[in-house]
Write a structure and sequence with these properties.
- This protein is of the alpha/beta class.
- It has 3 domains: 247 residues, Rossmann fold (3-Layer(aba) Sandwich); 140 residues, Glucose Oxidase, domain 1 (3-Layer(bba) Sandwich); 102 residues, Immunoglobulin-like (Sandwich).
- It is built from 12 helices and 24 strands.
- Helix 1 runs parallel beside helix 7.
- The chain is globular.
- The N and C termini lie far apart (58 Å).
Length: 564
């Protein structure tokens, strides 16, 4: 009935908030596992931090008024770090997004903000929560697999994942395998509700493509139709990104490549068979970390001159706390769950930021962000460049500065600092009107009395440059390492771009001393950035100290604009 509202409850109705909160600051719990998998001692990033939790989302979504009210309550309560695992479609400006409006006020109060990048990858310009006053976190894999192996009748095998690893399933018994989508029907390809009616799947392993409905729901469709097992294969754009889910029947999630191999095998014989073997928890898998396909990508739609996402954090198959018996397919009695998303990577960085804040209570939010970004890892556990869902080197629009390295972030050597006034100058430089700036700043800010700056002049720990003619930007670094220290610059030039830095050495004589350098980006005649018009490189300040070796790295992303 119109006008009747549902009663509000502080209870977690779907598990998302409990999972993210315990990731950020959960206590030590021995014997944590999900259905016997990933067994061990669980702990959040900052286990001795105090949690203040504000419920702003319900079963019907997240209302803008509730989002703003939650952020304002957190500001009034004096929190140090704000973790926002809430995404929305990328918009062309900041002043119409309530998260950007609310977090600007939080930043003005000295609060560090960590936000999820969104789960709309791998397409370009899908990254959300991309304001420069927020740390925007993409999602990566870990070196842990909840392994399943699909053994085909021809002897080929495909490794996959599943949380449901039944002990009573006859893994050594080959099952007939069928791909119902062979008829070309999109519904049967995806195994949606009712699509298997009239298809004989009884006692068979059924191959389903992802999409249309959730993977666990597909399993229920297969099970209700009489299927004995399910293999879920990726769509092409999802590549090698696979996740573990608590399926309702024996199942395996495999890559697009392996799924295509299974299809080829099914079509090659009149009596195709498969076995699903359950291997349990496997540690030390590679490559890791890898950017997961769903992690949203840059360029940054409202501000192309700011590289986003900022950094990667663990966001795939993350084990964390869970309220009992919630969700569409509850794991009965379990107080933990393993789920995936940039919502999971965000609280990892929130907890890490809290640890850095406790070590450096005088650092600004921008200083903490700089420490995280400039110390991030760019290599995986093979010592090679981090890859994406295609197993090809991931670009900066996927990785940002790289994968977080918490211990190095606590001692970065140099930081790029910012004040709230710097962001006002940046907003004016975007061409916003006074009213638009005031939507964010909540004050009587006027661009007529504020000296505006270009996006590239914001003292940010990364560079995102659109090149027609040459451009020069200044950066100021603050010494937070050894009092007496010297740094020299090392540059990896983007293809087709000349990069010059002046001065090419920095000499500090005291803690908190600030020095400024300039960097000029110039297109070379031979430079085009390739067919997509992008090129990448890095600028790194390397200390010459024998006691502590600092490497302060900033990624460089260049977009070529041949119209300029």
């Amino acid at each position: 009935m119109l006008g009747i509202s549902m009663p509000a409850t502080p209870s977690d109705e779907d598990g998302h908030g409990t999972h993210t909160a315990s990731t950020a600051a959960g206590a030590f719990v021995e014997g944590a596992n999900v259905l016997g998998n990933a067994n061990g001692t669980a702990v959040g990033m900052a286990p001795f931090a105090h949690l203040a939790i504000y419920k702003v989302c319900g079963q019907s979504g997240c209302a803008n008024t509730d989002l703003l009210a939650g952020i304002e309550s957190a500001i009034q309560d004096g929190v140090d770090v704000m973790s926002i695992s809430i995404g929305s479609p990328a918009l062309p400006n900041f002043y119409t997004r309530v998260i950007d409006i609310g977090t600007f006020k939080a930043m003005q109060k000295g609060i560090f903000i960590s936000c999820s990048a969104g789960n709309n990858g791998p397409s370009f310009s899908t990254v959300s929560n991309s304001a420069p006053w927020c740390l925007t976190v993409g999602a990566s894999t870990m070196d842990r697999s909840i392994r399943t192996t699909v053994m085909l009748g021809n002897g080929e095998f495909c490794n996959g994942e599943s949380l449901f690893q039944p002990k009573d399933f006859q893994s050594n018994k080959p099952l007939p395998i069928i791909f119902p989508g062979a008829n070309g029907d999109a519904n049967t390809t995806a195994c949606i509700n009712g699509s298997l009616d009239g298809i004989d799947v009884k006692g068979k392993a059924v191959l389903c493509e992802r999409g249309r409905i959730g993977d666990i729901a597909k399993g229920l469709v297969v099970k209700n139709a009489g299927g004995s097992a399910m293999i879920v294969m990726n769509r092409e754009y999802e590549g090698f990104s696979i996740i573990a889910a608590a399926h309702v029947l024996p199942a395996s999630h495999v890559s697009f490549s392996d799924g295509s191999k299974i299809k080829t095998y099914i079509n090659s014989t009149l009596s195709p068979t498969a076995m699903i073997l359950f291997r349990g928890t496997i540690l030390g898998t590679s490559p890791s970390p890898m950017v997961i396909s769903f992690s949203s990508r840059g360029p940054n739609l409202p501000s192309p001159g700011i590289l986003k996402p900022d950094v990667l954090g663990p966001g795939v198959n993350v084990l964390a706390g869970w309220p009992q018996n919630v969700g569409s397919f509850p794991i009965l009695g379990s107080t933990f769950n393993i789920i995936s998303g940039t919502s999971m990577s965000c609280p990892h960085l929130s907890g890490i930021a809290a640890l850095i804040k406790s070590s450096h209570p005088d650092w600004s939010p921008a200083a903490i962000k700089s420490a995280i970004m400039t110390t991030a890892d760019v290599l995986d556990n093979r010592g090679k460049q981090i890859v994406d869902e295609r197993l090809t080197p991931a670009d900066l629009f996927a990785t940002g500065a790289g994968h977080v390295n918490p211990s190095r972030a606590n001692d970065p050597g140099l930081i790029y600092d910012l004040t709230p006034d710097d962001y006002l100058a940046y907003l004016c430089g975007l061409g916003y009107t006074d009213n638009q700036v005031r939507m964010l700043a909540g004050s009587n800010a006027s661009c007529s009395i504020i000296t505006s700056i270009r996006e590239g002049e914001l003292n940010y720990p990364s560079f995102s440059v659109t090149l027609g003619p040459s451009q020069t930007f200044n950066r100021t670094v603050t010494n937070v390492g050894n009092a007496m220290s010297a740094y020299t610059v090392e540059i990896i030039k983007p293809q087709g771009v000349d990069v010059s830095v002046k001065p090419d050495a920095l000499h500090f004589s005291s803690m908190n001393e600030k020095l400024t350098y300039s960097v000029t980006f110039s297109p070379l005649e031979s430079g085009s950035g390739g067919s997509i018009g992008f090129a990448e490189g890095s600028l790194k300040w390397v200390s010459s100290s024998s006691s502590t070796k600092y490497e302060v790295r900033s990624p460089i992303s260049v977009t070529f604009d041949n119209s300029k």
